[in-house]
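quick one, two chains, predict together pls
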Amino acid sequence: MTSISSVAAAVAVLLAVGHALVAVVAGRMPLYWFERWAAAYLIGMASLSVLWITVSVFFDLVHPILMVSAFGAAGGAALYYRFRARSHAVEESALVEEPVGSNSRWQNAVLMALITVEFAALTLVSLRGSLGFDGLFNFEMKARLMFEHPLRQLPLGYLSDASRAWSHPQYPLMVPFGELWIYAWLGRIDQTAVKILFPMFFAAVLAFVCGVCRRLAGNQAALATALALGLMPPMTLLPGAASAYADVPLAAAVVGAAAFMFRALSTGESEAAMLAALLLAVASWTKTEGVVLALSIGTLGVLFSRVVHAYGRPSSISFRRSLMWIWLPALAAFPWFLVQLQYGIPAPDLVPFSVANVGANLDRTPAILALFAGELLRPGHWGLVWPACAVATVLLLTNTRGPAAEWFLASVTFVPLILYVLPFMLSSWPDPAEHVRSALPRLLVPIAPVALLLTVVSVSREARA
Amino acid sequence: LCVGFAYSGAATVRLYTEALQKPAVAGPFGTLDAFLKPVNLSTGDPLSAAVRQANWPADADVVVVADRHDLPRQELYQVYYSVSYLLYPRRVWLASPCDASRTTKRCNDVSEQRSRYLVVIGAAIGANHRSQFAWHRPITDKIALAEMP
């Protein structure tokens, strides 16, 4: 096979497996095609990585691709189930609420063309440019170590290698696995070929945001929101999709989970709740802060499901079912946590968490908050999405009709922002301000799409009112 | 929002234009090769081959010794990480960037740590301190392998 067909086959198998799993989990749930494929991409990659690790002890007997292809065949069977199940599904169009504002065809066509140009430019820049610093040393390096290992595993010695602590051996492996998957199909290392994965993660972010916006605000608002997401340099360039960092993959998992939880809280659909739980598990397998984000978002979801229940909504998610928003991401993170406990070394960037250490650095708080404010308002960086999100939250505060599900989106945006102060209080960098400046844009990438989603949802509700 | 996105959109277009004006990075190790440019290496192969020829053991501790005047801090770390990438599974450490005048002490420290194997970055260190090395092999004018006695 040529390089292009090998990469295409790798991505196709990944999507097919993911699609089958999404069909099994949410076969009866009406989803737009782009939402279904976005979920398939993330869930396919995460599930294949778990399968890979599980069966890698047999890789000296059976070729990895053959073994994992067997799983693909099982996925095909599940696809059959999906097609059968969809015959019972509600028509997708039935879910689209009354569109807000004009929805003229030519305006939609122009927006669609602009999004296409934007995505083509991002893909071109990704493929032409180098991987970013962390993209190479934190993620691709792990993929290369796995590829060169006789059993295609991450060498355990690497996890305790203090001379490479800078490469964050404690980071979970979903992104390195995605790159390893490409290498396995190519039969060699190719730092150019793996770049194709990252515009696809960005497309997944667009798909999840657009799905909610299209349902609640119509096609035009959805397309305009997708266009706006591509105009934020931290989402596209650095630390965005072109840099091959794990922040955009994490953003895809986080905004997907938030979108499906929002839907589950609004409608009580248990399949949406299940998809959200799976995407939270993907988030906790993507990056260390993904574990914190997934557990925080899961906990918020459980709390808000109780609020919805208390208001007597018949379609609320049961407490027991909502708990999967916590236990599923925790379960996904637990084996890796055990491996780290046994073989890992502490992260070099932070001093151990303790009340004494936090107390000793309390004086950093004003400087950290000032840097936060500076980043959130940085001209040309975030497109004023944070001030707009603050206005949307004020609208929510002043409007008692604001549904609890919207409050959930607001909490998913603002609770992590508050939690993010803590790691910088524990920064071991000689200059903590430099640590904030370096890390904060990356930390904001996963929640910026949720902030934009909240803004669009709140504004469209106000417009309808 | 519209004003904000117009502003960040302009920034995006500018950044894309800048990115597209740079030469394309291609090849199996394209990014790593690009990261080694500050030491005048177009690929990592000569460094890997030199280490293989020198028979440095797989469990060796290798120390990157650098003259901070030769490379900016960012590029120094970029080269150090790239060397570490290439020399896996050997443990690779960075001796704190130091002035050429302090390098003798640094090299002594390295010797005390029983790290015989050095990757020397910077022309000055190679030229001024060659006599301290049991063995010294330039790869380019900016990077060399050396062994302490």
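Helices of chain B lie at 2-21, 30-35, 45-53, 73-87, 103-112, 123-129.
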